[in-house]
Hints:
By secondary structure, the protein is of the alpha/beta class. It has a single domain, classed as TIM Barrel, CATH 3.20.20.70. α1 runs parallel beside α11, α5 crosses α7 and α7 runs parallel beside α8. The longest helix has 18 residues.
Amino acid sequence: MRPLIVVGNWKMNGSLTTNQAWLSTVVTGLQKGMPAGRRFAVCVPFPYLSQCMNALSASPLLLGAQDVSAHVSGAYTGEVSANMLRDLGASYVIVGHSERRMHHFETNDAVALKAACALDEGIIPIICVGETADERNSGRAVDVVRGQVNAIVGQLQDRLVDSLIAYEPVWAIGTGKVASAPIAQEMHRAIRLQLAEFDEEVASHVGILYGGSIKPENATELFAMPDIDGGLVGGASLDAKEFLEICRA
């Protein structure tokens, strides 16, 4: 039985003051009780990892980062390695988010390498895949996502069982649009069937999260789908109360 996992992604937002208020509200809310069989995490900008590590000690909310280097160490100014993230208490890291693919030209192979670096340090990579509006409208959505997943399978093989995949339709990120639950389920099912072509056991255990304008109003319906194992929550995760509502969905 795969656990339901809800992960917040603050993106490039936050401050020491607002972070502390958010963390206090969410940790208190989670400690008051949540349905069994669920996991919760928040992925924060690099400068706030230390603050959040201290605030989340012994709490039910795990810590994650938003990116990781594909290199272990060396002359890579501005990069942050997986062992650095581990030192700062990160349990998860997002790799291949559509914003990084778009603005930083990250390729499928680069994303797979980053995921491998995270796994080497015992950090769970949240590997993002998804199609643009043009790709969906032209009927290529499944082919595009399959290509992204193939790169992951080729690099990680059976290590996929220790990873998460996040399906994030690019056209739904930050737009207020959301894939309907049946459309999201259809793609999640396609991803799982593709993983099963490699290894049915791996496919049955890998969590596949939905990301794309998740809100309290649509979270319950999305999470009820058989192949949707939780959510990667962007804008709504900036509001502590909204994030808690999604966690309860």
